[in-house]
């Protein structure tokens, strides 16, 4: 049997395996990133580096919400016995300066020349000085040896209207900032988008119009901590106050997948890196089957010795076992099954109904002189809904699934 090939080439970069640590506390220091590569991560995105001053809140920056099945309680503060629901954070970008980061990027690349190190960078967009910050960050990080750049267009904690997720909500700014960085970059440029938007496929298209090489999603979802029913305080607060922060972990996996499907369906030939709720191979597989070429992990790694040595071991062994299991189909690497279920995410009206004769996608039957109004698409028949080669979930032949 041929040995499975775990490596991937994504935006021209060769990864030993498609699993990366996302920009977050696991990647905030040189020692963490070195430990991550020793543990086997194929790539690492640094904690976001910026040029503006960063001062975090006076209290914990992250907490974990757990469900306690015996009482039904969902709480951040009732111990670790519950099942993890999500992480919540209001941590800003790296509080270390660019000068602190540059020699470290250089040393990490010297120690692990074959692993992929992406520098996450962030600046504003409201004036020329801020645009120059993007250029400075991009050229300094690539000169220090970063293999690629990830533009943080998604930090959910920004009061500034020209920064973070406020860029990610504005397609013109997404395009413009990507273009500014592309002009300074020799390495691939990825853009990490915010889930807090109406139609993320619009911003993804804008990034690609600006010359971006890949879109990354999701950053954390806007959310606030729960209120403790006894103390009547937010479970996480400073002086009783809280502001909207970001939700990550298992709770966001299905939501992040929905956004990813929107984007990969709209731009099937483009590159996407999936993030959100991944802690084992089966989770990452969802992103791959929807068309992603890499996946990134934060919350699960934070809870596993800070950089996820057990998580990456599980991801790699799960992936190897998966390829071995599907060897007879001829699947030897990610490209053999990437995007296989992308086109199974369809409009609601395309889902088969027991009786579709009276279903018109929510529209009234046309009457009188309204014949000019557009006809809704017909609902799928049973035959059309079933993929060629078998029932949903039971692929017989990879090629027959492709349209
Ligand atoms: C404490 C914390 C800090 C984070 N900081 C950053 C950051 O600096 N830059 C960034 O792009 N994303 C940041 N993220 C978002 C993560 O990279 C990731 O997109 C998100 O947590 C979803 O992945 P997960 O479900 O695996 O946690 C942070 C997340 C957490 C929990």
Give a quick precis of the structure.
The protein is α/β, with parallel strands linked by helices.
Describe the structure.
30% of the residues lie in helices and 17% in strands. Strand 3, helix 1 (30-39) and strand 4 (43-45) form a beta-alpha-beta unit. The strands form 3 sheets. An 8-stranded parallel beta barrel has the order 3-4-9-10-11-12-15-16, surrounded by 8 helices. It is an alpha/beta fold and 403 residues long. Flavin mononucleotide binds next to strand 8 and helix 9.
Key phrases:
binds flavin mononucleotide, disordered C terminus, 5-stranded antiparallel beta sheet, 8-stranded parallel barrel, 403 residues, 12 helices, alpha/beta
Summarize the SSE layout with pairings:
Blueprint (H helix, E strand, L loop, with lengths): L7 E3 L2 E3 L3 E3 L8 H10 L3 E3 L3 E2 L11 E7 L4 E3 L7 E7 L8 H14 L4 E7 L5 H17 L3 E6 L11 H4 L2 H14 L4 E5 L6 H10 L4 E4 L3 E3 L21 E4 L4 H14 L4 E5 L5 H9 L4 E4 L1 H4 L6 H17 L56 H4 L12 H4 L2
Parallel strand pairs: 3-4, 3-16, 4-9, 5-9, 9-10, 10-11, 11-12, 12-15, 15-16
Antiparallel strand pairs: 1-2, 6-7, 6-8, 8-14, 13-14
Average predicted confidence as pLDDT: 92
Helix content: 25-40%
Cα radius of gyration in angstroms: 22 Å
Strand runs, count: 16
Backbone shape: globular
Q: Approximately how much beta-strand content do the residues carry?
A: 15-25%
N-to-C SSE string, H for helix and E for strand: EEEHEEEEEHEHEHHEHEEEHEHEHHHH
């Amino acid at each position: 049997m041929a040995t499975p090939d775990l490596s991937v080439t994504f935006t021209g970069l060769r990864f030993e395996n498609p699993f990366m640590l996302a920009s977050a506390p696991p990647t905030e220091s040189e020692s963490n990133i070195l430990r991550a590569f020793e543990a086997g991560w194929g790539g690492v995105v640094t904690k976001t580096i910026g040029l503006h001053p960063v001062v975090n809140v006076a209290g914990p920056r992250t907490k974990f919400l757990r469900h306690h099945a015996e009482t039904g309680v969902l709480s951040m503060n009732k111990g670790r016995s519950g099942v993890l629901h999500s992480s919540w954070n209001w941590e800003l970008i790296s509080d270390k300066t660019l000068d602190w980061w540059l020699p470290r990027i250089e040393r990490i690349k010297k120690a692990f020349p074959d692993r992929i190190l992406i520098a996450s960078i962030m600046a504003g967009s409201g004036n020329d000085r801020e645009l120059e910050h993007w250029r400075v960050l991009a050229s300094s990080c690539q000169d220090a040896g970063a293999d690629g750049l990830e533009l943080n267009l998604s930090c959910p904690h920004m009061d500034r209207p020209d920064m973070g997720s406020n860029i990610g909500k504005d397609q013109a700014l997404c395009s413009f900032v990507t273009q500014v960085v592309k002009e300074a970059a020799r390495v691939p440029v990825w853009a990490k988008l915010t889930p807090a938007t109406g139609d993320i496929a619009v911003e993804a298209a804008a990034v690609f119009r600006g010359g971006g090489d890949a879109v990354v999603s999701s950053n954390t979802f806007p959310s606030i901590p729960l209120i403790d029913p006894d103390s009547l305080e937010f479970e996480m607060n400073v002086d009783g106050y809280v502001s909207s922060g970001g939700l990550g972990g298992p709770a966001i996996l299905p939501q992040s997948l929905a956004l990813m499907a929107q984007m990969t369906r709209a731009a099937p030939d483009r590159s996407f890196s999936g993030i959100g709720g991944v802690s084992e191979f089966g989770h990452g597989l969802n992103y791959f089957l929807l068309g992603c070429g890499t996946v990134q992990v934060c919350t699960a790694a934070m809870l596993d010795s800070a950089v996820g040595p057990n998580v990456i071991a599980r991801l790699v062994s799960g992936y190897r076992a998966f390829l071995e299991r599907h060897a007879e189909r001829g699947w030897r690497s990610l490209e053999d099954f990437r995007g296989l279920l992308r086109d199974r995410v369809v409009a609601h009206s395309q889902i088969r109904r027991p009786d579709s004769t009276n279903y018109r996608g929510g529209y009234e039957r046309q009457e009188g002189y309204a014949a000019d109004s557009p006809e809704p698409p017909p609902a799928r028949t049973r035959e059309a809904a079933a993929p060629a080669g078998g029932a949903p979930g039971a692929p017989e032949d990879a090629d027959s699934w492709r349209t």
